[in-house]
Amino acid sequence: MTLSKKITAKIRDSFAKQAMMATFGAQVGEIAAGQVTLSAPITDACSQQHGFAHAAFTFGLGDSAAGYSALSIMPLEAEVLTSEMKIHLLAPAQGTHLQAIGRVIKPGRRLVIVQAEVFAIDKDSRTQVALMTGTMVPILPK
Amino acid sequence: MTLSKKITAKIRDSFAKQAMMATFGAQVGEIAAGQVTLSAPITDACSQQHGFAHAAFTFGLGDSAAGYSALSIMPLEAEVLTSEMKIHLLAPAQGTHLQAIGRVIKPGRRLVIVQAEVFAIDKDSRTQVALMTGTMVPILPK
Amino acid sequence: MTLSKKITAKIRDSFAKQAMMATFGAQVGEIAAGQVTLSAPITDACSQQHGFAHAAFTFGLGDSAAGYSALSIMPLEAEVLTSEMKIHLLAPAQGTHLQAIGRVIKPGRRLVIVQAEVFAIDKDSRTQVALMTGTMVPILPK
Amino acid sequence: MTLSKKITAKIRDSFAKQAMMATFGAQVGEIAAGQVTLSAPITDACSQQHGFAHAAFTFGLGDSAAGYSALSIMPLEAEVLTSEMKIHLLAPAQGTHLQAIGRVIKPGRRLVIVQAEVFAIDKDSRTQVALMTGTMVPILPK
After folding, report:
1. Please, are residues A131 and C131 in contact by the beta-carbon 8 Å criterion?
2. For a designed S-S bond to C65, which of B58, C89, C100, D33 qualifies (C-beta 3.0 to 4.6 A apart)?
3. Rounded to two decimals, what is the model's pTM?
4. Domains identified in chain A and CATH numbers
């Protein structure tokens, strides 16, 4: 489904205001209704003790992708907050980039259930490194 | 319980090698058997769109505190990996610092169940901003 | 905090209508504002292949205790639904009874974050067998 | 992938010993390597206060399907325990039957990451009522 230009612009504006995403070097990829992709280079600054992407980095990229997937199906004036999120770390996050695909599992007026899959991209490979499920809360102006 | 100097040194060494923790400006606080405290200033570089600490930052500090609490009760040659972690975000992470207290809930040879509580510290207040529970996996040399 | 008789009666009425609780042989224990205790005998009908209480039984008792702890702090006309729940199974549920203590972690108009601890009671012992955290949604008449 | 008759028989034997599954009236459906389906009628005995399937019933069927999916890829002498499981309840479990499909997400010698989807089946409809992800632990004889 195609999104209105206003919703797409709102997601890009919100993303640009998240300093943490700039620190991660993250970028917005494809934005569709209920699905948003983010990616970021795996750099030294965001690694753990073995040189792989740190779980905080993997979590942050997946959580943001999931949050924007929820935002993509909400009214233009809404914002969104993560209430809870579970992450399974499936493999070492080794490669040149991380890619996170957030998806709405179940929309709702009061809660939006979301999922994110995070992949480590290397020259010739793409490995799923995390599976996340969580709850997003729409915030509407009073 | 007092920890051996070797275990304490091992935790400090491992922490020093996590570049993500340096990017967060994080520091190790108290280290006891089964409980480790970390703290970090809330800076612009790790904030979300409203200027509060980003969920990735809160998650990362809590996950590391929990992981080191598990490491504190393992044999000296062991390392530890997060297998899964759930975070409930309870309040906006607003203030000067984050403090994360990781604790072992149930030790085990193959799995260690852990908890972390994360607090936002301001001049006159200390507010719990996250509750986390998760599974750590000991890695032993073969 | 003491609860009004109306809230206490409402919790007992709701519990009595849950046939699954009768199948478990469960009973309501102490009801306080934000904390509710349930218990049930460990019988053959609700066991797994080794004769311990089945995870579905442990989960159900903990989930209900947590749900009623949320209901205890809501307006009289409200009902409550579980949106999500995570359970860590910490030890085999062996003994004569299960006891579940549900507690509100963070109240809210739209979401209530809850915790439950489940214990296996035997003649001379009380062992924690599960730790649960979850999200309850208040349902108000329109 | 086809499973050996021995593995299939082992899963049916283990299922037959779970009294809780008999109380639910549950039956084993398709057994494949890494995927097992269970189903059960929605009866009064396993309902909540509105007559829908109780969350304990939904959880129990999904957890067992997920556990048997893990068992299906383990050595013949192994058993399996749930360490942790998260359930998102997506819709009221209304209809004639529940169907749970358990699937291995990531196999492992020490941990198996699993998923389960639970559906409510009615005359003309099939609605997903739960999404679960969890951690199974293989138990091998010493």
Report:
1. no
2. C100
3. 0.97
4. 5-139 (3.10.129.10)
